[in-house]
Amino acid sequence: MTAYTNKPEQITALYARLSQEDALDGDSNSIVNQKAVLSKYAADNGFTNPVFFIDDGVSGVTFDRPNFNRMIAEIEAGNVAIVIVKDMSRLGRDYLKVGYYTEIFFVERDVRYIAINDGVDSAKGDNDFTPFRNLFNDFYAKDTSKKVRAIKKAQGMAGEHLTKPPYGYKVDPADKKKWIVDEEAAAVVKRIFDLCIAGKGPMQIAKILKLDKVLTTKAYYAKQKGKLLPDNPYNWNENSIVGILERMDYCGHTVNFKSYSKSHKLKKRIPTTKEQQAIFRNTHEAIVEEAVFERVQELRANKRRPTKAERQGLFSGLVYCADCGSKLHFATCKSFNGSQDHYRCAKYKSNTGSCTAHFIREETLKAIVRQRIFDVTARFIENIMDFREMVYQQQFVKAEKDMKRKRREVEQAKKRITELDRIFKRIYEDDINGIISHERFLKLSAEYEVEQKELTEKVKTEQQEVATYEQNKMDFDSFAAIIRKYVGITELTPTIVNEFVKKIVVHAPEKINGKRFQKVDIVFNFVGEIHLPAEPQTEQKEANKQEKTA
Fold first, then answer.
1. Could you give the C-alpha distances from 41 to 45, 115, 323, in angstroms and in order?
2. Rounded to whole angstroms, how far apart are CA atoms 213 and 236?
3. Which of 18, 353, 448, 480 fits 349 for a cystine, CB–CB 3.0-4.6 Å?
4. Are 11 and 49 in contact (CB under 8 A)?
5. Could you report the per-residue pLDDT of 131-141, keeping only the tens digit for each?
6. With contact defined as beta carbons under 8 Å apart, do 96 and 144 qualify?
7. Which of 73-77, 520-524, 538-542 has the highest mean pLDDT?
8. Residue 527 in 3-state DSSP?
C-alpha cells in the first residue's frame, strides 16, 4: 500500500467530464450533478484546497482535453495531492490510457486517486475489479461510437448535412437542418473563384485578400460572435483558399462522407474517394455556378508553371503540342518588353529532345484566339439558331448515331441480365432435383456468372457515356451565356480566356510555297472545337508575320 501525504499547499483536484453522448443519459451525469457529488465528498472527507477541472462536451475516448491537460500539468508540477472523479468513466473510456494514469502516472507521483461511485481509492489498496470497469467503459465508448456512426450514416444517406455550414453559409434560424447564404462571406467566396478564373493561384489570391484587409474565416467568425479578433486577422493562407476552391458545396450540393476515421479512438480524418462520397444535388442556394466551379477544377488540375520573369503567360497551362501531347511552356525574358515572349513544347530541348519546338509567339497566339472568339461571337449574334444548328451538326450528329446504338445495347444487355437471373434459378432447381449433374451445374453457373458480370460492367460504362453526351448537349446554353457576357470585346484578359477556352492545340509549322503556315486548334469550353465556314485563315497570316520577325 502506498503512503499518501497531503502537503498544506497541495490541492485536491475534482475532475468532471461530460461528452455529448453522456448528456443523453439525463441529469445524473450532468456537470452540475458531478460538481455537487464531488464537492460533498471532498467536504465530508476533509479534503482541503478543492479545485475543479471541468471538460464539458468532450469525449472520454480522447485524452487531449483542455482542463484534463491543465490538471496533468499541475500534477507534474507537484501541486496535486488527490484526484477525485464521480466514476471511472469520467476520467476516460480508453481502458489502456485510464490504466496508465491510475496504475503508473498517479502512483509514480504519489497522487491519491478516488472514483466515488466505483468504490476505488488507491489509498486503500488495489481494487481487482477496476481493470474490468475500465474495459467495460471502453466497450461502452466503442458501442456508442458504432451507434453514432449508424445514425450519421442514415442521416448522410438521407441528404442531411453532416457538418457545420462552410464559410459563405450559415444555419437557417427557421430550420437548423438547412443552410442559407451568408451574403457578406459569400461575396468573398465569389471573389476567390473569380480571381482563380482570372488566372490567379491560391498564394496570389491569399496575398490579394490580405492587402485588401479581408478578414480570414477565423477572424470573420470571431467578429460575428462579438469576440476579440485573432492576431493577423487578414493573414489568409494558401490552404484556406484551396479548401474553398475545391468545395463542391458552393454549387448548392450536399457532399457527405468526405472523410472517415479508422477507429473511434483516432481523431485523424482520412479523405474518401469520390466513389465513397454521397452527393445530393440542389439542396441549398448556390454561391458559385457549377460551370464556374468545374472550370476552376480544370484550371487547378493544370497549374501554371511559374516563370523567373515578372510576366505570366496569358495562355499558360492551356497550350498543348499536337504531336506529343505535352504542354507548351511559356518563355519570357526581363530584358524585353514582351515581344519575344513565346511558347514551346516541353519535350523540345535545343533539338536534343523527343519533339520539335512548335514555337509560337504569345502575341501571335493572342491575335489568333482573339480573332477566333470574335468570329464565333459574331456568328452567334448574327443568327443564334443557325449557330446552334452548326454546333449541333459538328459536335453531335455523328455522336447521336453512336449514342442511339449504345442505348439499344444497354437495353439489350439489361434484358439479358434479367434473363440470366431466371436461368440461374432454373439450373439451380435442376441441380437440386437431380435433372442435371452438380458438375454440369457448376460449369454452367460459372459461365453465366462471367457473362452477367461483363454485361453489368458494359451497362455501367455505356450509361455513363450516354449521360455525359446528354450533359454536353445541354451545355450549349452555358456557352451562349459566356458569349453574351463578352459581346464586343477588343482585348483578351485571363478571365475571358479561361471562361472561353478549354484547350489550345498548336501544330508544327510547315512551309507551303515558301511561306510559313501553322495550324492552331481552339477547343472551347462546353462545345469543343467550332469550325466556321471557310474564311481567310488568321493564324496563317499571323504565322507569316511571325516568320518575318523571328
1. 6, 11, 83
2. 10
3. 353
4. yes
5. 545 555 555 55
6. no
7. 73-77
8. coil
Q: Averaging pLDDT over each range in 77-81, 437-441, 464-468, 478-482, which range is the top one?
A: 77-81
Under 8 Å between Cβ of 29 and 117: no
Q: Percentage helix, strand, coil, to 5, in the chain?
A: 50, 15, 35
End-to-end Cα distance, the chain: 94
Provide the pLDDT confidence category of residue 150 given band limits of 50, 70 and 90. Answer: low
Bridge-based pairing of strands 278-280 and 254-256 is: antiparallel
CA-closest candidate to residue 55, choices 44, 47, 63: 63
Question: In this model, does residue 547 exceed pLDDT 50?
Answer: no
Range scoring the smallest mean pLDDT among 19-23, 163-167, 451-455 = 19-23
- pTM higher than 0.70: no
Q: Using H for helix, E for strand and C for coil, what is the string for 431-478?
A: HHCCCCCHHHHHHHHHHHHHHHHHHHHHHHHHHHHHHHHHHHHHCHHH
As a whole number of angstroms, the distance between CA 521 and CA 323 comes to 13
CA distance 504 to 527: 14
- Give CA separation, 455 vs 166, 203, 420, 447, in Å: 42, 48, 10, 12
DSSP SS3 for 515: strand
Number of Cβ atoms within 10 Å of the Cβ of 140: 15
93, 87, 145, 150: which is closest to 121 by C-alpha? Answer: 87
* CA angle (372 as vertex; 366, 375 as ends), nearest 5: 135
Rounded Cα–Cα distance for residues 417 and 3 (Å): 77
Closest CA to 159 of 248, 250, 255, 252: 255
DSSP class of residue 309 equals S
CA angle at residue 96 from 93 to 98, to 5 degrees?
55
Q: What are phi and psi of 340, to 5 degrees?
A: -95, 0
Cα separation of 198 and 205, whole Å?
10
Q: What is the DSSP letter of 120?
A: E
Q: Average pLDDT in the 289-317 region?
A: 74
Distance CA 188, CA 244 (A): 10
The residue whose grid cell reads 432435383 is: 433
pLDDT greater than 50 at residue 536: no
Identify which of 175, 173, 163, 165 has the alpha carbon closest to the alpha carbon of residue 250: 165
211-261: per-residue pLDDT in tens? 999 999 999 999 988 889 888 899 999 999 999 998 889 988 888 777 556
Max Cα separation, the chain?
109
- Bridge partners, residue 17, by sequence: 55
Query: Given its phi and psi angles, is residue 351 left (phi above 0), alpha (psi -120 to 50 degrees) or beta?
Result: left
CA dist 286 and 282 (Å) reads 8
